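Lab notebook: predicted structure, single chain.

Context: the supervisor wants predicted structures on file for every construct in the current expression panel, including those that have not yet been purified. This is the next one on the list. No modifications to the sequence; it matches the entry in the shared construct table.
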Amino acid sequence: MGLGWRGAAGTLRIRTEGSWYLLVTLLLLCAFWEAHAQTDDEKSVYFWETGPWGRCMGSDCGPGGSQSRAVWCAHVDGWTTLHTNCDQGQRPSNQRNCFRVCDWHKDLYDWQLGAWNVCVPVSARTLWASRPFTCSGAEEGIQTREVGCILKSEESPAEDSICEYFEPKPRLEQACLIPCPQDCVASEYSSWTPCSKTCGTGLKTRVRSVLVPPLFGGSLCPNLTEFKSCKPGPCTGPEGMYSLRIGPWNPCVLPVIRTERQVKRRKGKDQGVRERAGVKDPETRELIQKKRTRNRLNRQESPFWDIQVGYQTRDVTCIHRNGSIGARNLCTMRDLPLTVQSCVLPKDCQLTDWIQWGPCSKTCLDPESPIGNRTRSRQVVQFPVGEGAECTPLEELESCEPLGESVPPCATYTWRSTEWSDCRVDSLLSQQDRRRGNLTGLCGGGLQTREVYCVQANAELLKYLNDLKEKEKAGQTQRQQKPSVPPLLSVTFQITASLPVENKLCEGPIPNRSQLCQIPCPIDCEVSPWGAWGPCTFENCDDQAGKKGFKLRKRQITNEPTGGPGNCPHLVEAVPCDEPSCYDWKLTGLDPCVPEEDNQCGPGTQIPQVQCVNSTGAEVDRKLCTSSPAPEPVACEVPCSRDCVLSDWTPWTSCSQTCSSKTIEGKQMRTRSILAYNAGEGGGACPNSSSLQEVRNCNEHACTVYHWQTGPWGPCTEDPSASTLNTSTAVGASGGGGPCSTGMQTRKVICVRVNVGQVPPKKCPDSPRPTTVRPCQLPCKKDCIMTPFSNWTLCPFTCDADGNAVKTKQTRKRLIIQQPSNGGQDCPEVLEEENDCEVPKICPGFRWKSHKWRKCQLVPWFLRQERPGAQETCGPGLQTRAVSCRQLDGTQADINECLKFAKAMPSITQHCQLPCQDDCQLTNWSKFSSCTADCVGVRTRKRALIGRSKKKDKCKNTQMYPLSETQYCPCDKYNAQPVGNWSDCILPEGGRVDSLLGMKVQGDIKECGQGYRYQAMVCYDQDNRLVQTLRCNSHGYIEEACIIPCPSDCKLSEWSNWSRCSKSCGSGVKVRSKWLREKPYNGGRPCPKLDHINQAQVYEVVPCQSDCNQYVWVAEPWSVWKVSNVDLKENCGEGVQTRKVRCMLNTIDGPSESVEDYLCDPEEMPLGARESRLPCPEDCVLNDWGSWSRCSLPCTRTNSRVRMAYTLRSPSVGRECPDTSDNEPCGLNLNCFNYFYNITDWSTCQLSPNAVCGSGIKTRMLDCVRSDGKSVNMKFCEELNLEKKWQMNISCVVECPVNCQLSEWSAWSACSQTCGLEGKMWRQRAVVQASQGDGRPCPPQMEQWKPCPVRPCYRWQYSPWSECRVENVVCGHGTRYRNLTCYVSDGSREGEGSLVDEELCNSLKLAVDGDTEILLKEACTLPCPGECYLLEWSDWSSCVSICAKGAGVDFGSVQVRSRAVLAQEPENLQLCPDQAWESQPCTGGQCYEYKWFSGGRQNSTRPSIWCQRSDGLNVTGGCPPMNPPVDNSSCDPLCLMPKSFCSEAAVCVCEEGFTEVLSPVGQLDQCAPIPILEIPTAGDKKGDVKTSRAINPTLPSTLQPGRSGRTWYLQPYGPDGKLKMWVYGVAAGAFVLLIFIVSMIYLACKKPKRPQRQRQQNNRLKPLTLAYDGDTDM
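Prediction complete. Output recorded below exactly as produced.
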């Protein structure tokens, strides 16, 4: 049976024919195997069995341990038997030596990891490695490595178990990616070149370049050159066959010997000089000596350059077109080029050895950034000369960590702050309205500020460690002195402040510089109304002798004020009086009138009921009143039946005045009325109307009221009488405002007469006199605490344009941490100091100084004397000069300083020419003459012939040697124009405004008003080149005034007056409101929540309490009866009485004045008229009904209330009195009521009148409510002792309206571009304090920009390379040149810029596109006629990423350049060199895709099929291979899908093993691999396997060409491209059949199972030892 995989889907292929032969073979093999095994087992059915090795045991660590295991003899059937049954010679060992691992072995052993091997494809390691594989981006692979345990000291291998004891074995393999082969990709061909010859047979050429090099085994690059022959026409004459070819210069060498003639000339010259010098006088000789010394200094040999001038030669040959060399006379001779020239012997750069590494820049321990850097350097011994190797870097940098045990920790920095300033409410008010900032007595919410500064957090610790190190260096040991105490544990009573450092050293958020605070609002004293005047009493009842009397009236404190009752007004007033007494009788009532002599009527007396009371009205023992006579019985009269009857007297009204004077008297009145008239002549007559009213004087004391008046308490001062032992001093200023000792306060107390002023103290009673002294707590003194001065700021070295040092200043400052108070030490005035920096003598800087050129050195004469026309003393040569390093002031400096800080070193050699006698010698050009004006006239420069040249005719040829040059005067015209957008509107600098009262609020900055916005100006010259804006007389900007609108806050009106309480009795509300006057705009402070329904009002509602007895009804006495039927004899019968009822304001002294009737309760209004019957004579007369008794609760109809009357006049005989009592049932809410408390809602948060925000209180009130809902006097609820469970006041907070506070604008940033048009500068600000409450919100603009002044962008740029120059000959080795030119641009990417004078680039570093190695000439080769050669290198291609687009695989980026071959003669094509390419890595490469495209028809130069890159570039290579590789142009569209081809029917179909997946329009979309089921057909006699594949059902089912026999076509794919269900069924059936066959083979070939003892699960446990006890059943 054969098994295999076919296709990408991997469907199992089963070959049915021949399967039985294989099965029979396997069964025979299995039977033979079993028989052989049974033969072996007959020899030995017993074998040794072993258990696992146990744990390594031993007393010592290392290789001395041992481990054991169990060994026993077993039968093949599985049971254990005697040891003797097994072969003893083959018995395994049950014990072995082992390595016992201990913990300390961890430092000795470790895993050694080998390098990862080459990445091997996964497919190569699998069973199905032969299956086709399509690489897409990368192939998955596996790489392995060797891992072993080693002894680290010897690197010798050890057992893996040792290392596994400490760490698991590292992995031995890992996944990797193998990049797919990348074929070479070439560009399109260029156009054909002209024919290489003008006559005869030549070549046309076209070339292309490499875009992507071949990588990872991809196909090689195609030919980069394509040739085709051309024949412009026959040649008329013979072609030139020979050309003079110049070879390259040979290496520079020194001449072997110096000719004797030169030596003699040198000696003779020296002697001549000495002889000539001897002729001069001493002064002249001294001048000459100085000049020689100066020249020697100029020519001094530098130790860094060893310049040796030698010579070099080159060959000149005559070469044939076919490349062969001929005799020189065959070439047409022109001026023979130089074959020998002077040169400088090349010397490589020589450096000293590296010096030792310098110290690590990190000298302390820093957990956050522990790594520092260290450097080492080396010096130049020999600079490179000629073409010697350049110097490698002179400095090297590496990372390092501080080493050693005593490395101190790094300095850490933290924020510190001064103490908070005093809380200021005016700061908040001034934010809202500056006019309110100067109010006094403010309280509530406010602002307080502080300064924030940065300090070194661990300065004390570092100082301690440093001191400790110094002591150790000094040799002091800890035994000789007391141990030091670290500062973190030391205790000190001295307040020290840390040194401020630069704020930029502190990281993390800056603490708040301002915060809200609270000034407690003083509680005003509230007092009750005055009480009634008391009786005239002594000041002191215990001492009554000779003392005057006073009447007193008092009031109570209803709201305790801040600071105690001493801040309240006086509570007692006194009036002097006569006849004082401490105790007196008080009349409480009169007994009924008792007629005299037991009569029934007539005159009688009433016994008064009295109490003995003291001056306060309290009842006392009656004995105390014995000094005063008791009230006498009062005369009265009981009317007889025919007498007039009068009512009882009403109570006395309240006194009309509180005191009496000459013009004012107090009066009281009482009245009575006639209840029944007398019966004619027989009875007592009624009195006249004047007798019905009585008036008496009251409050007869004079209006001289006295009281004690107190002044404010004075300051708390030390009490001299207090013992010093009781005082205590604060440990430090940290005691704050806490009490330090007890002091004393005094105040002034005077006696004041009301409306008069101060009077002698004896006028006022002593008993209520206030105290004048009280103890107080003295606050601690607080001294000023300041930080030390910070370190001086660094002195910057600044130099002007001339290189002179500029004077600068350095500063230092200190801050006040704690302000002095309570008499503490004041702060010094100087908080900032300034100091002049020391001006350096010279500005730091270095420059190269080049010395004079030395004499021009020629090639030795003996080397060039054979050259035709050569002269010994003239010709081309070489000259050198010295270069030294100088400071800016010209003093000598180390050459290494110039290497670091100076510009490029000037050249030290140059070619020179010693003129021969026949040469023309001219002076240098003069300067151009000056122009009278720009753009007018010309300017000239001149030169002249020197010496003999003036007489030579050839030198007078002004065409060859012009003596003057003329040019137009420069025409400098400049044009200025604006560029870019307008900047933000920027306020002028210095816009900070100080708050009122001299207090600076953070962020209080002028943020609106007139500012300026800027637009950059650009200046161009007449050639439209960018120049400095100064040329256009501009400072670089256009300024335009602009306005930043100021924010306008929401404006409300002032509070209205409080409304009247909504209820006249009980709890109501009162309201006040504000009206919106102006809405906010421009980011002003927002309005509070407005009630837009009621015309945008802001309401404040508070509960109020109205005393139910505040207004009372007062009824006057009833009028005289008006009887309707008047009987002349008897005045009685039905009648009417009337009286006036008025609403009056009730006071403690009684009703005082009339008010509007609506203020009184209408339900309580007494009747103003009544109808009744006036008793006739001899009728019974009763008094008016008394008040109703109160119904008992609960209110039920079974209860009743009663009112009573009594008889004033008894009736005559035969007549009766009516009932003297009246009953009425109690009805709920009719005459009986329940009472309960009602609690009001909370008021709005109420602040003190002087507060704008902060802490306040919410209040609510209790109301006594009757069961019918009416509010009544609180006494009704209080009489019932109802529970009051509510809290009436709670604290609340009104959020303070804090405006947003911003930091100051930062300094302007550096320009975003150093030059050009688009540079911008930015500045930022931050939110220091976010707005709170209804404060002004933060503006949205947190940063501003303005354009930078436009500066031209200058840059060095190479000119194009010149043509290869070969001296006076046709071909060979030459040189090509290019210049370094200065270009200017505007910084934009459009355009390369314009050429300008090189002087403008002199300030730039000499570099082109960042490359500092300037190359202005290079060797080149000019091909000879007929020669085949390589073109110059192409430009570097664009950076290309080696990737698979969409697969996320990237193997880096690369760019490439190439050299194509160019031939001139068809005969020389075989001699052409190989084309070349080179690549280099790059960054940021683009990932491309490559696809086949088709198009183009006849008469088109483009092929019908081509490969195109995803950026639209047509390329060669990169596209997937096409099968078949023939032009399938018969199909339209072309068959470009992989595995597709064009059929004979001009339809795109798929290759064998792939099925067509069609697009919705019926065109081929892709070729999908299909599983293939190969079935032998009936016509196949030999059982050949035919390949079945699915075909397009749309095609005719004819036999395809090349396919014979009958084939079954099974289509496994459905129309959607997915596998059909029957494919899965076939696969499952094949799998089950395979499992069945394998199982049968296994059962047939199975050997008898050997017995297995149960293994121990833990192989570290010691194995069990088996003992045989003689039992044969074992």
